[in-house]
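User: Can you write out an input/output pair for a complex, sequences first and structure second?

Assistant: Here is one pair. Inputs:
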Amino acid sequence: SQKIEQNSEALNIQEGKTATLTCNYTNYSPAYLQWYRQDPGRGPVFLLLIRENEKEKRKERLKVTFDTTLKQSLFHITASQPADSATYLCAPRGGSQGNLIFGKGTKLSVKP
Amino acid sequence: NAGVTQTPKFRILKIGQSMTLQCTQDMNHNYMYWYRQDPGMGLKLIYYSVGAGITDKGEVPNGYNVSRSTTEDFPLRLELAAPSQTSVYFCASSYSISGAHEQFFGPGTRLTVL
């Protein structure tokens, strides 16, 4: 069955450093992969989408890579700030109808 | 635009009671979804709809029902509440179902079944 793994439940880093979050998927090859941010008590908010034919996508301090050979996506936040503290969800396209499948998320804490 | 709105924000139910979670979107999206999120777990798809009058089961549909009479509204019905349905429920909508477009989420409904 299709499986999504975000291999860190929690990541603690110092302000100004680069945060790198990992998303691995198995048993399928998604055509798209999305990343969302979720703050406590709120719904997820879309950040970035990357297609299978794209190696890398950037938006301001955010960068996403998509390695279809390794079946892995990396999500980077450069020059991290305490305001970046949140849970980040990986969501590759999957399912019988092409729905998104969400990972459990990685909780990022950026310390001043 | 209000985006995706959900009511109520919180609800406590007794075992066996019924309720409807309301969801409305004003973006004219054909695709709408209901997810549940348990602590430490990812979002699980309950039901989704590709347009008015068309719904389909997701990964965890048991104990729930949906309807889609208009493009804007996608209510989720719990007929006989059970403690296992204690969760946070999110409604979402999108322009397409292919994964090529973002999903817009509502603020969630926190449901406790005692």
